[in-house]
Amino acid sequence: MPEVFIDGKRYEFEGKPMLLQFILDQGLEVPFFCYHPAMSIPANCRQCMVKVGTPVKDRETGEFEHDENGDRKIRWFPNPQTSCSTPLQDGMVVHTQETSEEVARAQKDNLEFILVNHPLDCPICDQAGECPLQIQTYKYGPEGSRFEVKKVHKPKRVELGPRVTMDAERCINCTRCVRFTEEISETNQLTIVQRGDDNYPQTAAGEEFDDPYSMNTVDICPVGALTSTDFRFKARVWEMNQTPSIDITNGKGCNVDLWTRDNEVLRITPRENDEVNDYWMPDAGREAYKLFNENRADRPSIKLDGDNQSNTSWNNAIETFAEVLDAHEADDILTVGSPHASVEENFAFNKFFNLLGSSNAKFTPDVIPGAGDDFLITDDQAPNTNGCRAINLDEADSNSLQSAVSGAKVVIILSDDLVGREVLSAADLNDSYTISFATNENDTTNVSDLVIPITCIAEHAASYVNVDGRIQRSYPAKETKYTNRRLNLEMSEGRLDRYGTNFDNWVSEENKVDCLPVWQFLNKLAERINLDFSYNHSRDVFADISEQFDMLSDISYERMDEENGVQLPIKQEEVKQA
Amino acid sequence: MAELSFTEEELKEIEQLKAKFPTAKAATLQVLWVAQRKYGHVEPEVQNLVAETLDVPKSHVHGVASFYTQYYKEEKGKFVLDVCTCLSCQLCGGYDILHHLEEKLGIEAGETTDDGMFSIQSVECLGACGYAPMLQVTNGVYVNNLTKEKVDTLIDNLKNGKMPEFESMAMPELEKRNQAASE
Amino acid sequence: MAQDWKSFEPLLIPDIPNLQQIEVYEGNGGYDALKKILNDQNEWSRDNVVNEVKQANIRGRGGAGFNAGLKWSFMPDPDGGPRYLACNGDESEPGTFKDRKIFEFNPHLFIEGALIAAYAMTIDTIYVYIRGEYISWVEKFQKAVDDAYEKGYLGENIMGTDISIDLEVTYGAGAYICGEETSMLESLEGKRGYPRVKPPFPAQKGLWGRPTTINNIETLANVPLVINNGAQWYSDLGAEEHPGPVLYGISGHVNQPGVYEYPTGVPVLELINDVAGGIRGGKDLKALIPGGSSTPVLRADQLEGVTMNSDSLKDAGSMMGTAGMVVMDEDTDMVDVLWRIAHFYHHESCGQCTPCREGTGWLEKVLLKIKNGEGEMKDLDLLLDVGNQMEGRTICALADAAVWPVRHTINRFRDEFEARCKKSTHAVA
């Protein structure tokens, strides 16, 4: 197998890898800015320079030539080479900054150039703390600057589009953003304009950078030139903690990270998963952070007189729920599951009412034909349509759901704004007693007689099956009134969480929502009505699911974690309009 | 600005330009030239017209227009006087010519006279090093071996609508020989 | 080098009136080389043409001085897809104004050379890229191309053979960088003139990803001379390692500036004094930039015995470049000159890659400071250091071209720079 020697150590390689990617794949480091594994290689930042040589071969025999010590003769490239654009060759010898003064010096020289026209505004820059330029300057850069003349001035605080703000002075012209719109989103909305040290990225005059994927350029910008207009100046990176999760705004299930501070989700960024979304996600998915913070169903609420809802205690909610169940036959109760809720929520919900004698819950897919693209935006507006199918819920279109509702005396809805998305009308629910399990207040909760507030994806561990049949799961990112970051080992802790106390002014209770996971509420309800139903954790719910359904039999949270989600043997069905 | 468009004739010319290359994009520079000849500049609206005509991204045309210095990204004077001040012209008094023009027209390099007649620019080497100092009129004719007097005459002529003619700068050696032969 | 160089009869631009007219060109043996090849394609197989040109050792006249025939031999075997010859008429290096003479006075010699090159490399499309400022010459050259089409030297079935070659004339819009060969390809593709990362080299992936050879205009104009007279005859012209006729562009402080054609290897001082009529106003020679602004400046005392060919100039500490000679007299302020050169490279850096984008501006700004009498001694070492950090670290050679003049002008005129820095208030304080 062909071999390469990097900093004196031998590695074998297959195919035709590029040197930088190969180095990164070995867990080694060479600094770089413009290179991105998903895009073309412009080699324009010149930061990843290394020293490269190839063994000298005898022209006639094709054998390696050796020097007097018996070592292979190496022909060194006269100049350092950018490792991103250097294809590996058999016998190649490479020295990175770790073993070559010359390389370390070349990288330092290059950073000095990059910083020549870069403003010294890290203290007010959103990128600080997660800035490749800042990090690599600390590690590889010069200690001071010898640049004592005037820096170039360029446009600042430019709203490139509705979601991205540009500071052209911070730009180092890596062209990642331009290449993203050319090669990934294919909208071609950005170009580099001007020439030389006046260069910066820009849209055509009068055009907005409204690419539905525009905010990915914020993620890949290696400096603070492109920032999220929405997130600007909201938080320092080191104040937040980062929790892996899934995008719930459509059916693709883009892998994401939720960034929280004081139990408020402040931003959502994509998490790499080659099987689903590579490094990207649609802008729409990032807006979902508001759903987790605002307009939450907080404490149970109940309709007492006329249409007026008011908050009530959990005890009263449980009591009311139990009385309603007690007063009706199983046949009079309609249960409606949800493609917007997780597999575990749907299963626990369905099982509970199955135990009471109800038939399987219905559910209605949330699909807008034509809303999707060929990339990461799907027609399916819900994250778990296939999950509902996988546990055999009863798929119903709008009409059949309407007729089912009209024949029921009690309608129990799991986390789905059926009125808001016009599957049902408010009038459809007039004649029945309606109970909603809900994360957020919406048109459906407004007309419900009893609202049970439940945890959202940012507050629980649960799994979702995307349009392609991949099952992936979330982790709790923000505390509820009843969870505790320090006791729940699945929750991550940021600096403020770890070192803060309840007496610090950055810690508050107000962002903790008074809600319960569906299964925990159902535990309490089961206890009240003496039903044999009890789950301590969504993990237990899932264990039951995998026991019951062949397709999920060898799936577990551990496997989903290790494999970054698991593909289920689901046929890629046309997702039908409900 | 009113809705911009190319005439049938211009569109025909553009088709011919496109035919030179395997892609429409390749004609970007040439069609920007067609547009600049028509409108006198390639302001954003003109750039967008070029993009639409060629069916290439507007951002692409914008990037190209801003890269090349001969495209006027904003309206210029009727006559743009590009005075070469680079190396050989610098040595032979290019800056004197530039300053003379600035004084004469009452504007600085980069500016346009109030009457919209003249713009002056200090430009890089125009490839007329042997005929320094020199200038180019509105991306067209070169005026060589400038003196202040020659500049004055040029300005007068331009004011009267008289463009300078192309000066053939012969190979001096050959000229010498020809002269010797005719004597 | 023969001593009789002064009696050399010009070959690239011979002394024939109206040679740009196709009938006149034909009447003086024009297109004979092409006919010779096309009429006997066994004798003049494509490989034989490449070999003949390789043996003649035409060194590229665009500045790099690479053997043109050798470059042709890098083209891969034809695979049925398009292949291109891109002719570089973007001459923009300060001090260079020679190719326009070919467009104006002997365009058909170049067209004939380009046709032979296309034949030799099995190419059916030639692009001629001319700098946008040369619009007057673009028009003149286009006329010659139209005539050649009309006479059947270009287009379908050239001169009744089954060979078809098209030639398209196009032009830029103001960017020195487009004279860099891969940047010119980008510009030909209608884009910003950003040089490409090599490898892949244009012979593998050039225009629209297809095999492409790039030659300078003057280089190709030499090709018919080789075919007509043989490689041996050609390589006997001028300097041994760098043979052939050259268009010397002489400018600056000389009495008779202009473009002169002589063989390579002419003594530099004789070119200045005898050909170009000596220094204006009877002044002394101070310095010479021998081949365009990027080639290192030589002091007058370094010019003794130096001839215009790459080896001699290399020994003297400079390069042949484009043979665009810029002559400076004793009153020349080298700080001003160097600042202006640095300004040029700063203005023309495309900005694609870091060391050049940031370095060229830094160099210019420090030089401006020195020029304005605000320099400090440490600035001189800083300039040299910045230059060292740029050289060899970029995608194309523009950074190198920007660095060499800085390094060599400071080193060769250090006193003058130091004196200017000493005048500065900083130095006194």
Automatic annotation (TrEMBL), chain A:
Pfam family for this entry, one: Fer2_4
Protein name as it appears in the record: 2Fe-2S iron-sulfur cluster binding domain-containing protein
Cellular compartment(s): Membrane
InterPro entries, per the entry: 2Fe-2S_ferredoxin-like_sf, 2Fe-2S_ferredoxin-type, Mopterin_OxRdtase_4Fe-4S_dom, NADH_UbQ_OxRdtase_75kDa_su_CS, NADH_UbQ_OxRdtase_ferredoxin, NADH_UbQ_OxRdtase_Gsu_4Fe4S-bd, Prok_molybdopt-oxidoreductase
Primary localisation category: membrane
GO molecular function, one term: NADH dehydrogenase activity
Family (UniProt): Belongs to the complex I 75 kDa subunit family.
Protein's GO biological process: ATP synthesis coupled electron transport
Alphabetically ordered keywords of this record: 2Fe-2S, 4Fe-4S, Iron, Iron-sulfur, Membrane, Metal-binding, NAD, Translocase
GO cellular-component term (any): membrane
CDD domains xrefs: fer2 (cd00207)
SMART domains tied to this protein: NADH-G_4Fe-4S_3
Residue intervals of the 4Fe-4S His(Cys)3-ligated-type domain: 102-141
Domain 4Fe-4S Mo/W bis-MGD-type: 240-296
PROSITE patterns listed in its UniProt record: 4FE4S_HC3, 4FE4S_MOW_BIS_MGD, COMPLEX1_75K_1, COMPLEX1_75K_3
Organism: Fodinibius halophilus
UniProtKB/TrEMBL annotation, chain B:
Record flagged with keyword Iron-sulfur: yes
Cofactor remark: Binds 1 [2Fe-2S] cluster.
CDD domains the UniProt entry points to: TRX_Fd_NuoE (cd03064)
Annotated InterPro entries: NuoE-like, NuoE_dom, NuoE_N, Thioredoxin-like_sf
GO molecular function annotations of the record: 2 iron, 2 sulfur cluster binding; metal ion binding; NADH dehydrogenase activity
Positions of [2Fe-2S] cluster binding: C84, C89, C125, C129
Pfam families: 2Fe-2S_thioredx
Superkingdom in the source lineage: Bacteria
SUPFAM superfamilies: Thioredoxin-like (SSF52833)
Gene3D superfamilies: Glutaredoxin (3.40.30.10), NADH-quinone oxidoreductase subunit E (1.10.10.1590)
Cofactor dependency: [2Fe-2S] cluster
Alphabetical UniProt keywords: 2Fe-2S, Iron, Iron-sulfur, Metal-binding
Family per record: Belongs to the complex I 24 kDa subunit family.
NCBIfam families attached to this UniProt entry: nuoE_fam
Name by which UniProt lists this protein: NAD(P)H-dependent oxidoreductase subunit E
Native species: Fodinibius halophilus
UniProtKB/TrEMBL annotation, chain C:
EC number, as in UniProt: 7.1.1.-
UniProt keywords, alphabetically: 4Fe-4S, Flavoprotein, FMN, Iron, Iron-sulfur, Metal-binding, NAD, Oxidoreductase, Quinone, Translocase
Matches recorded under InterPro entries: ComplexI_51kDa_subunit (IPR050837), NADH-UbQ_OxRdtase_51kDa_CS (IPR001949), NADH-UbQ_OxRdtase_suF (IPR011537), Nuo51_FMN-bd (IPR011538), Nuo51_FMN-bd_sf (IPR037225), Nuop51_4Fe4S-bd (IPR019575), Nuop51_4Fe4S-bd_sf (IPR037207), SLBB_dom (IPR054765)
Transmembrane portions of the chain: none
Cofactor entry: [4Fe-4S] cluster; FMN
Enzyme class (EC, first level): translocase
GO biological process terms, semicolon-separated: cellular respiration
GO molecular function: 4 iron, 4 sulfur cluster binding; FMN binding; metal ion binding; NAD binding; NADH dehydrogenase (ubiquinone) activity; NADH dehydrogenase activity; quinone binding
SMART domains: NADH_4Fe-4S (SM00928)
SUPFAM superfamilies in the record: Nqo1 FMN-binding domain-like, Nqo1 middle domain-like, Nqo1C-terminal domain-like
Organism domain of life: Bacteria
Catalytic reaction equation(s): a quinone + NADH + 5 H(+)(in) = a quinol + NAD(+) + 4 H(+)(out)
UniProt keyword annotation of Iron present: yes
Entry's family note: Belongs to the complex I 51 kDa subunit family.
Function summary: NDH-1 shuttles electrons from NADH, via FMN and iron-sulfur (Fe-S) centers, to quinones in the respiratory chain.
Name of protein: NADH-quinone oxidoreductase subunit F
Organism: Fodinibius halophilus
